[in-house]
């Protein structure tokens, strides 16, 4: 058999400094790295220490903690924390913590703890993704970015129309604004996982149907979504190959200035100080919980600048190679 074993690449989802590591047998032999770095695993025979080097750089190899070791260490550290919502081991209940086990069922928001240590990735030739997901806090300007993309280049970008159980208003008709349906049908479809997300507002159900995303994909356009971060797990599949951009909130002061300059950051009428504070807080929470999913982070401190950066990033997808989850390649 002349096949060469494929090189293993891991994307790190934490910072590592061997000088601060009490477990490493020899600190000088360690390889320091940052969250987001791509590491080539040169040797993984030892269950605790892997030998690695940075991908694409012909640099020296060094020791890094194996996934197994890092999982154990994080579970152990978590032991001392009193609140599970604060960090990596979100979803652990107090009782389960003692056994170092995940309890993912308890909290669907956090049920992707397994990706947070290392994520196996593959290099892929330049290609355009078919789904663009803009995640971020409410009021951070995702809707405006999405609308601007579609307005500027309707042959390339398309949104999806949501479904709702509320009755159409006077100027609305099916497919214009929303697809209108009844609550019962919608509830059944939600139960059958036909929606990537849904919510209730004023006693009515609203949600985005998976089939609407397929339809856009079929048309050859890039589907632009500004959905809830809880949908990321459903969307990050070989089928959608999404490009996930986190639109981060700037400071409360900058948000206020942007709002006063006339940017529609919110759809809920006049924004108040507390709305800006809520946006900034929510943004930090989403970032902390979901950052392992993000391909790109843009701080929206100037709408025009953010829009230009987004366009530039989308263009560069078609000209640079990309690191993608290993299961996208097969
Ligand atoms: P309206 O009925 O005035 O068109 O929308 C009222 C609210 O429904 C919106 O402000 C938003 O909070 C919610 N909504 C609209 N579309 C969706 C959707 O696709 N998903 C979810 N979860 N909520 C939506």
Number of helices: 9
Quaternary form: single chain
CATH fold-level assignment of the largest domain:
Rossmann fold
Distance between the termini: 21 Å
Q: What proportion of the residues form beta strands (DSSP E)? A: 15-25%
CATH superfamily of the largest domain: P-loop containing nucleotide triphosphate hydrolases
| Average pLDDT, all residues | 87
Bound molecules: guanosine-5'-monophosphate
Total discrete domains: 3
Strand order of the largest sheet: 4-3-2-1-5-15
General shape: globular
Domain Guanylate kinase-like: 129-315
Keywords: SH3 domain
Domain SH3: 5-74
Family: Belongs to the MAGUK family.
List keywords for this structure.
single chain; 330 residues; alpha/beta; SH3 type barrels; Rossmann fold; Guanylate Kinase phosphate binding domain; 3 domains; 6-stranded antiparallel sheet; 5-stranded parallel sheet; 9 helices; 15 strands; globular; binds guanosine-5'-monophosphate; SH3 domain
Would you give an account of this structure?
The protein has helices spanning 67-78, 94-97, 142-152, 183-191, 210-218, 232-235, 252-260, 273-290, 303-316; strands spanning 8-12, 38-43, 49-54, 62-65, 118-124, 131-136, 157-158, 162-164, 178-180, 195-201, 204-209, 222-225, 242-248, 296-299, 322-325. With 330 residues, it is α/β, with parallel strands linked by helices. The protein folds into 3 domains: 1-124, SH3 Domains (SH3 type barrels, Roll); 127-156 and 221-320, P-loop containing nucleotide triphosphate hydrolases (Rossmann fold); 159-220, Guanylate Kinase phosphate binding domain, CATH 3.30.63. The strands form 3 sheets. It has a 6-stranded antiparallel β-sheet with strand order 4-3-2-1-5-15. A 5-stranded parallel β-sheet has the order 7-12-6-13-14, sandwiched between helices. Strands 9-8-11-10 form a 4-stranded mixed β-sheet. Helix 7 (252-260) crosses helix 8. It binds guanosine-5'-monophosphate. Guanosine-5'-monophosphate (5GP) binds next to strand 10 and strand 11. Guanosine-5'-monophosphate is lined by residues 162, 166, 197-199, 201, 206-208, 267. Belongs to the MAGUK family. Residues 129-315 form the Guanylate kinase-like domain.
């Amino acid at each position: 058999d002349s096949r060469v074993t494929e090189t293993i690449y891991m994307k790190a989802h934490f910072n590592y400094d061997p000088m601060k590591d009490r477990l490493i047998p020899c600190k000088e032999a360690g390889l320091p790295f940052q969250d987001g770095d791509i590491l080539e695993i040169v040797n993984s025979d030892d269950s605790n220490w892997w030998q690695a080097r940075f991908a694409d750089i012909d640099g020296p190899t060094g020791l890094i903690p194996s996934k197994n070791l890092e999982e154990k260490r994080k579970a152990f550290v978590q032991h001392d924390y009193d609140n599970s919502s604060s960090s990596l081991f979100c979803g652990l209940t107090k009782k389960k913590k003692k056994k170092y086990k995940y309890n993912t069922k308890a909290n669907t928001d956090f049920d992707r703890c397994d990706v947070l240590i290392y994520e196996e990735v593959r290099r892929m030739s330049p290609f355009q993704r078919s789904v663009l997901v803009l995640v971020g806090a409410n009021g951070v300007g995702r809707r405006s970015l999405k609308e601007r993309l579609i307005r500027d280049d309707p042959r390339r970008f398309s949104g999806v129309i949501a479904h709702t159980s509320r009755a159409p208003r006077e100027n609305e008709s099916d497919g214009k604004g929303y697809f209108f349906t009844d609550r019962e049908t919608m509830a059944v479809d939600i139960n059958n996982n036909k929606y990537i997300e849904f919510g209730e507002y004023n006693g009515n159900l609203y949600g985005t149907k998976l089939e609407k995303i397929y339809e856009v994909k079929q048309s050859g356009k890039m589907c632009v979504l500004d959905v809830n971060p809880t949908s990321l797990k459903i969307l990050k599949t070989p089928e959608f190959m999404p490009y996930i951009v986190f639109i981060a909130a700037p400071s409360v002061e900058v948000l206020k200035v942007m709002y006063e300059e006339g940017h529609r950051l919110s759809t809920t009428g006049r924004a108040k100080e507390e709305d800006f504070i809520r946006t900034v807080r929510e943004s930090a929470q989403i970032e902390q919980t979901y950052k392992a999913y993000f391909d790109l982070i843009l701080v929206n401190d100037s709408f025009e600048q953010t829009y230009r950066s987004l366009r530039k990033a989308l263009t560069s997808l078609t000209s640079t190679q990309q690191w993608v989850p290993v299961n996208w390649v097969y």
